[in-house]
Every structure is written in C-alpha cells, then in structure tokens.
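REQUEST ID: PR-0412
SUBMITTED BY: lab tech R.K.
PRIORITY: routine
TASK: structure prediction, single protein chain
INPUT:
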Amino acid sequence: MAAATKDSYLRRRYALAEAKRASTLLREEDKTKILTIAENFNWKIGSTKEGQTCDFTLNFTNFLRNSTNLRGPRGKWRLVNRLMQNGEVFLTTAEARRLLQEEIQRHIEEKLDTEVTSLPETITEATKRLNQLFSERKATIKLEELPKEVVIPAFPPCIKRLYDTIASGRNVSHIGRFALTSFLTSTGMTSEDVTNLFRALPDFNERLTRYQVEHIAGRRGSRTKYIPPMCATLQTHGVCCNRDETCTTIRHPLTYYKSKIKTTKRDSNNKR
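STATUS: complete
OUTPUT:
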C-alpha cells in the first residue's frame, strides 16, 4: 500500500517507522544476533574480545555508508573522531543498532521504489484513503517534526506560508527558498532538518539541496552564515504576505520572531 501511494515522503515515513521498530527490537538481542543481521546486509563486521569498551568492529566503508546523515554531540559520527584500526571502526552495541537502523530504512525504501500496477479493489480503495489522509496531514506532520527549540507559533506570516507551501510539495521562488532556509537555520534548525523539509518538492535533489542549505548555514564555502532578507526586500519580490499588527512595527523576519517569542512567553507566564 505504501508503494502504491506513489508518495515518496509517505514511503520514507513508513520506512523510517519500520526501521525504528527494528532498532527497538534489536535491544532485546545479543551480540551474536546483531552480527548475523549485519552480515545479512553484507557488512564487514566483527566482535571484539570480552572486556573491551567497544563491542564490534566495522569496516569504514560500511560505517560511512550508514553514518552520513547522523549527527551527534562532538561530531561522534564523523570518521575523523572515531577510534579506528586497520580500516575497522570500533562501535558500541547501541551504535551498531543505530547504524543498522539506517541500513534497514534504506533497504525498505529501495523495496518500496517499485511500480505497483495491479491490486485487489479493496486494497486500491484503502490506498486511496491512505493517500487522502496523508495529504491532509502532511503539513501538520512536518510541523510536528521541527526541532523543539524552534518556536513555531512565532513564525512571521511570510515564513509560515513558505513553510506550508514547501511542506505540501509545491515549489516556491528562489528568493522564497533562500528566505525560508536562512530563517530556519538562524532560529536553530539543523541543516539536516532543513534538507529533509525540501524532500517534499518534486524537483528535490539531495546532493544539491544539502550543499545549498549548508552553504547558507555557513558550513560550506566562505563559511558565512546568511540571515533572511529584510522585509522591504521580501515585499519587493512578492514574498511578504498576510501582514499582521506585529509586521507594521518591524523591518526584519528575525525581529518579528524574537518579538513573538517574548509575547508568547509573557502570555504563558500570565496564565500561570
């Protein structure tokens, strides 16, 4: 049914959910079972001796294949920060499970990338309902996925509209994409989360999008972190919309955001 929806984002959500479930089940398994499962994915993996701080050794090619999209404190998933010997990266059991989750998710996504041409009528109808429900919920789901430190109710109207448009899979102008990306990275969203936001677009290119997002976030190129354009610029390019009372007192989207955060916190304190 997931494959039959032909919705790439829904497929990824399903694959992610199954991968997380598998990772949870792996917590109940011993090292031998984890080794067996990893070997089924053609991992070059081995078990360390008893008493060592790490439980497994994994060939660096398998490590890189599954750690690219992972983030952690102090860059824990970067190969340069790992203990490695003779091309083998040392892993704890928890780290092995996390890497297997990535492998499982990709495996399921590949299985779902197929053309479904014929299904029983009852399944076809259920798939149509699934598509409709997911379409109605997609924007809300993406909002729920935003990092907790990002205060969603404080978004300026123009940014909220850009976000909703992208989340629904519709394209926006170049200046609109820049404004949204620079705003989100400036308010605490990681480059990975911003990149994932753009996956809903029909012209999504992961390599290009990731580079552009990281460039705007100051992680590539000149290492200059960009901020959103002034309100006057957004007005000139037709990005400004749905102006409210706060908009009339500010000249920059980030100023709006900070002002709204203060108002939200003050209102919350008054209600206590």
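NOTES: The longest strand covers residues 56-59.
REVIEWED BY: pending
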